[in-house]
UniProtKB/TrEMBL annotation:
Transmembrane segments: none
InterPro entries: IolE/XylAMocC-like, Xyl_isomerase-like_sf, Xyl_isomerase-like_TIM-brl
Keywords: Endonuclease, Hydrolase, Nuclease
Organism: Peptoniphilus porci
Taxonomic path: Bacteria, Bacillati, Bacillota, Tissierellia, Tissierellales
Name this polypeptide is given: AP endonuclease
C-alpha cells in the first residue's frame, strides 16, 4: 500500500510558505498544506501570497524543483457575519499553486445560516476547480460526524467533502461504523495525529492539547487504524502541533518525526476501506 503525506501548517505554525515547503521537501513529504486564510491565533504570522509576489515565485520554484505539491489551503470558516467572497483570493492562490482543496469548518450554531453560506462557499470554490472539505471540531458549531453528514446532504454539492481529524473524531465520541457508511467520494484527505485516550473534561485543556500538545501517531491512545480502515485511502495531512517537541527537536526535526512515525504506523496497520 502506498500512502501520501502532507505537512500541515499548524504542525509548524510560525513558518512562512517557503519555509514550510522547504521543510516538507527535505523531510520527504509528498505535499504541503498551507494557511492562507488567517485566524489571528497565537503564533500565527501572515504571509499573503497574493500580495507578496516574490514569496509566491520563490515558493513556486521550490515546488517545481522538488516535486512537492500543495494539497490544500485553510481555513475558510463559516461564522456569524462571514463574507464568503473574502475567501476568493485564497482560492485563486490554491488554484495557481496546483492545490485541489479548501479546508472549512463551521463556527456558528445557526444551521440555516451555515448551510446557506457553506453552499455559497462550495459554489465559489467550484468556479476555481476546488473541493471544499468540512472539518468538524469538538468546540465548534458543527462538532460531530452526524452534523457534518447532515450538512453535506443538505447542500448536495458535488465538490463538497468531509475532512476527518483523528483528534476530533476521538474527542467527539464518533464511531467507525458511521464513518464506514459515508460515501467514498466525500473523502479527499484526512488529518493525522494522536492524543491521550482520556478526553479532558475542561474545555481549556482540550483546546490546549488540540493547539499545542498532540502526540505522534501511535504514541497516544486513539485507535487510528480503525478510523483509517473505515475510510478510503486518501492523502494524510499531518496536523500535529506540539510546542514541547518543537523545543526539543526543532521545526524540521519535529516535522521529520511526524512523518517517520506516521509512515511506520500506517505501513503496519492501515489497509483502508475498499
Amino acid at each position: 500500500m502506498t500512502f501520501e503525506y502532507s505537512l500541515a501548517q499548524l504542525t509548524v505554525l510560525e513558518t512562512s510558505p517557503v519555509e514550510i515547503a522547504k521543510i516538507a521537501a527535505e523531510c520527504g513529504y509528498d505535499y504541503v498544506s498551507l494557511r492562507q486564510i488567517y485566524m489571528g491565533v497565537k503564533g500565527e504570522k501572515i504571509y499573503d501570497l497574493r500580495k507578496d509576489k516574490k514569496l509566491m515565485q520563490e515558493l513556486k520554484g521550490i515546488l517545481k524543483n522538488t516535486g512537492l505539491k500543495v494539497l490544500d489551503i485553510e481555513l475558510a470558516r463559516i461564522f456569524d457575519g462571514v463574507n464568503i467572497k473574502d475567501y476568493e483570493p485564497a482560492m485563486e492562490t490554491c488554484r495557481e499553486l496546483g492545490g485541489k482543496h479548501i479546508l472549512s469548518s463551521i463556527w456558528t450554531d445557526n444551521k440555516d445560516f451555515y448551510t446557506e453560506e457553506f453552499a455559497k462557499l462550495c459554489d465559489l470554490a467550484k468556479s476555481n476547480g476546488l473541493t471544499v472539505d468540512v472539518e468538524y471540531v469538538p468546540i465548534a458549531g458543527v462538532n460531530n460526524l452526524k452534523q457534518t453528514v447532515e450538512l453535506l446532504n443538505d447542500v448536495n454539492r458535488d465538490n463538497a467533502g468531509i475532512m476527518l481529524d483523528m483528534h476530533h473524531i476521538h474527542r467527539a465520541g464518533d464511531n467507525t461504523e458511521d464513518i464506514a457508511k459515508i460515501p467514498k467520494e466525500w473523502f479527499h484527505f484526512a488529518h493525522l495525529c494522536d492524543a491521550s485516550k482520556e478526553i479532558p473534561k475542561e474545555k481549556e485543556e482540550m483546546i490546549r492539547i488540540m493547539r499545542e500538545a498532540r502526540d505522534y501517531v501511535g504514541d497516544g491512545g486513539i485507535d487510528i487504524a480503525s478510523i483509517l480502515n473505515s475510510m478510503p485511502i486518501v492523502p494524510y495531512s499531518i496536523e500535529l502541533p506540539n510546542s514541547a517537541y518543537i523545543k526539543e527537536y526543532g521545526l524540521k526535526g519535529h516535522a521529520q518525526n511526524c512523518l517517520d512515525k506516521a509512515k511506520a504506523y500506517c505501513d503496519k496497520f492501515v489497509k483502508g476501506r475498499e
